[in-house]
Amino acid sequence: MQPVISITGLDKTYASGFQALKDIHLEIYRGEIFALLGPNGAGKTTLISTICGLVSPTRGRIVADGHDIVTQYRHARERIGLVPQELTTDAFETVWNTVSFSRGLFGKPADPDHIEKILRALSLWNKKDNALITLSGGMKRRVMIAKALSHEPRILFLDEPTAGVDVSLRKDMWALVRNLRGMGVTIILTTHYIEEAEEMADRVGVINRGEIVLVEGKAELMRKLGKKQLILQLKAPLQTIPEALAPYALEPGAEACELVYTYDAQRGNHNIADLFEALRSAGIAFKDLRTEQSSLEEIFVNLLREQK
């Protein structure tokens, strides 16, 4: 798969001596939704700002859609749209003028048809003549996205796109991001909401203390680092787990009549049919069963715990 962003050996050290980014190597592929996760202060915004040319790297190279962000800054920046976390707009300007002005900042000729297309796609068309001060927080967030798309970028960065918005609007924003990807835009988002990454992302990157801890496809990440549990509801409680079942590492469940088997991709797996046969041979009968699987949030928390 072709990378649209390629980062090699990236460092960022500020004048104070604080090293915000440490030897970052990362490729983001064309047309994907990539979620960058990390705790506060991990380096997410610094990394985005550096890729977008707003922060100068101390060392390393970044190529965006075939253009070096230092030596070919103008060409690289034309291909990138950025929606910052903060809502920074002229409160008394109209939606139409705000978005049109952003297009002009990139030296693009006026294109009312393109502006209309964006505003309609973002459900802003009926607000085009409204002053920004009259809009809700969610609508202002949509205006920020419209501004970022005004110059027709192929890469869009969303820094905490649903920060401060309610749950229903958050789901609307998820649908919007998918639509943008459908238009051929590569999406890179940072988020504190793990369910946001779990819902939308094709791949997940975890950054902590300025270092990329892990980059993995979401499904593969769940397979490799997640765990699935099989909870058996027994017909009668067990006083002890028979020694013959030791290879299955069974554990008592939350209830007295529960027995838990953990399927862990990191350590391999037993055949479930063999487990059932071992239970039958040990004289243990069960009346029901259910499965539970790790969430992305649990994987994320465990990864960060291992880093300490």
UniProtKB/TrEMBL annotation:
Q: Which UniProt keywords apply?
A: ATP-binding, Cell membrane, Membrane, Nucleotide-binding, Transport
What PROSITE patterns does the record point to? ABC_TRANSPORTER_1 (PS00211), ABC_TRANSPORTER_2 (PS50893)
Q: Name one GO molecular function term.
A: ATP hydrolysis activity
Ranges of residues in domain ABC transporter: 5-234
InterPro entries membership: AAA+_ATPase (IPR003593), ABC_transporter-like_ATP-bd (IPR003439), ABC_transporter-like_CS (IPR017871), ABC_transporter_ATP-binding (IPR050763), P-loop_NTPase (IPR027417)
Q: Kindly give the PANTHER family that the UniProt entry links to this protein.
A: ABC TRANSPORTER ATP-BINDING PROTEIN
Record's protein name: ABC transporter ATP-binding protein
Organism source for this protein? Allopusillimonas soli
